[in-house]
Structures are given as structure tokens and as C-alpha cells.
Amino acid sequence: MSLEKNKSVKARLHSRNKNRERYDLGALIMSNPELKQYITPNKLGVDSIDFANPIAVKLLNKALLNHYYGIKNWEFPDENLCPPIPGRADYIHHIADVLSESNFGRMPSGDRITCLDVGVGANCIYPIIGVTEYDWNFIGSDIDLKSVAAAQQIIDANTPLATKVICRLQKDPTSIFYGIIGKEDKIDVTICNPPFHASAEDAQKGTRRKVKNLSGKKVKTAQLNFAGISNELICEGGEAQFIQQIIRESKNYSKNVYWFSTLVSKQSNLKGIYKLLEKNQAIQFKTIPMGTGNKSSRIVAWTFLSLEAQKEWRDKRWEAQS
Q1: Residue 297: CB partners within 8 Å, gap ≥ 6?
Q2: pLDDT given for residue 195 in this prediction
Q3: What is the pLDDT of residues 294-304, one digit of tens each?
Q4: What does DSSP assign to residue 50?
Q5: How many degrees, rounded to 5, is the angle at CA 150 between CA 53 and CA 147?
Q6: 283 phi and psi, to 5 degrees?
Q7: C-beta of residue 153 within 8 angstroms of C-beta of residue 71
Q8: Whose CA is closest to 291, among 273, 265, 272?
Q9: Which domains does the chain have, with CATH numbers?
């Protein structure tokens, strides 16, 4: 690999991430011609996307999904969260590694894997990547009826997703798994990108910082460059309290799920998470570092299955279908 090629690789992204290298803007414009008007030279004189503009970000994502993942139709309301695709893809790839490690290095894929996406959102991004990369089955849950309807429209409009993803409305906004996981359901892994902020004011402060970093401009009221309605970004107690609830509820579904997982944006939340996992007698838990650009994050994954129960799970669900 040439030195120039090395420089263009986003080394912190997972090795299987299709967005590790610098964006091929020419190919992306061919996938979505509307993107062209939002490409301008950056401070170094290199053509780049205006990442502070939510319209530009959404058009970029449409082009990425079309070019790299074969998703032709990705429409949802502009007020809903528009996710950064490289980071979302990294979560899926790292979780695939967790499953592989649990299966002696053999990657369980296709109909052998069912993944529950807690808070699927209107954009349906995790199921899109999980289906197109690994052919997993997905359940997407959300408390917002409009988000579920928008995600379902994306599923219906893209043939690869139509038979692989189902959406379930969480009718009780105070619950995570209750009403979503049935008594007989077997789910190989759950994923979640928790609401990060504890209040609207907290969210606005974070957005002002992001806009300043992207554009160098100070603003009193900032427009979210990735958009996002309140329940996608904000919950009482913020990320820490949401994850605590996931852990407490997960104990009640210990035999229905092999691996539970969640993103953890704030490293300061880890100590409390570990303590609660130990209190709830998780058999095993692990932390997987992630990073995109200057942002560091991590995944925490845990299981309540004994080694014997893990073997039985593998034999019945993964090995039997090899």
C-alpha cells in the first residue's frame, strides 16, 4: 500500500468498514447528483462536504447507502436523526466479531442470527447495514409510531430488507424489552445507541460545540447537523440512566438473548455500568473501543448465559444450520 493511500485510510475504523478510506466524491455524486451542490473546498483547498449542513449530511448518507450498500430508497422526515454511517457500520462489524468469538472464530450469519435494534429510528440504519453486510434478521423497536412507520417504508422500498426486518412499536415508553421480546423469542444480540443528552439545553450545548468544531463559527442557537427528534437524543438522566435501565431489564430476558450490548459515549459512565452488571450477576461482559475521527466511543456487551447454556445455544442455533 502506498504512503498516500495510507494517509487516506481512517485507521480507527473497523477493518471491514467500507468507509475506511477517504470518500470517493466522484462516485458518490454519480450515486446522488444532488450532492454536488454541497461540495466545496475546505481550509486546505480540498473538495469536501459541508458537514455543518444537515441537508448535505443527509444527501451524503443517501449516496453512501446507494454506492456501498445497494440501498436505493432511503427517505424519512428531515426532523428525524440522520446518522453518521461509518460509525454505525463500525458497531455492526464489532458485534459481528463478538458473535464470531463466541463461535470459535466462525462467523454465524444469515438466518442463524437475529438482532434486536433498540430504538431503530426512522432511518433504520443498523438493520440496513446488518442485512446488507451479514444477511442477519432484525427486529427494530421504537417508542415513536411515526419513526416505526418511516422505518417500515424504507424496509418495504428496498428488496434486500423486505423479508429480513420487522418493526415492533414499544407501546410503553418506560420499557426497553418488555412488550418487544416474546417468551419464545431467541435473539442472538441486542444493539442500542442510547439517547445521549439529559435535557434539551444539554443537547443544544453539544450541538453548538459540534458546529464550532466543524465551521469555526460560534452560534447562539445551533441546527443539528444530524437532525434528531427529542426522544432520539434526550432522555431523563441521559445516557447513564438509559443504560442502567437496559441492564436491569436485560436480567429478565437472560434466557432469550445471548449477547446484550449498547454504545457508551461517555467513558465516565463505565464504572457505574460495570458495577451494575456485577450486581445483576452477568456471567461475562466486555468493552470494545471504537473511534471515528477525533471521537472516541465504546461498546459494552454482556451475557447471562452460563458456559453450558452458551454451548447449547451454539449447537441449536448456529452449528445446526452450518
Answers
A1: 87, 263, 264, 265, 289, 290, 291
A2: 84
A3: 678 999 999 99
A4: -
A5: 85
A6: -70, -35
A7: no
A8: 265
A9: 79-321 (3.40.50.150)
Give the burial class of 241: count Cβ atoms within 10 A of its Cβ; 0-12 exposed, 13-18 middle, 19 or more buried.
middle
Q: What is the DSSP string of 207-237?
A: HHHHHHHHHS---SS---TT---HHHHB-TT
Which pLDDT does position 21 carry in this prediction? 87
The CA distance from 130 to 108, in Å, is 12
Burial of 274 (0-12, 13-18, 19+ CB in 10 A): middle
Residue 43: predicted pLDDT: 84
E strand or H helix that includes residue 217: none
Region of 267 on the Ramachandran plot (φ > 0 left; ψ -120 to 50 alpha; else beta): alpha
Weakly modelled stretches of the chain, pLDDT under 70: 1-11, 196-237, 292-294, 320-322
Measure the N-to-C terminal CA separation of the chain; round to a whole number of Å: 36
CA distance 277 to 249: 11
Q: At what angle do helices 238-250 and 270-279 cross, to 10 degrees?
A: 20
pLDDT at residue number 77:
93
pLDDT at 294: 67
Give the side-chain half-sphere CA count within 13 A for 162. Answer: 6
> What amino acid occupies position 266?
K
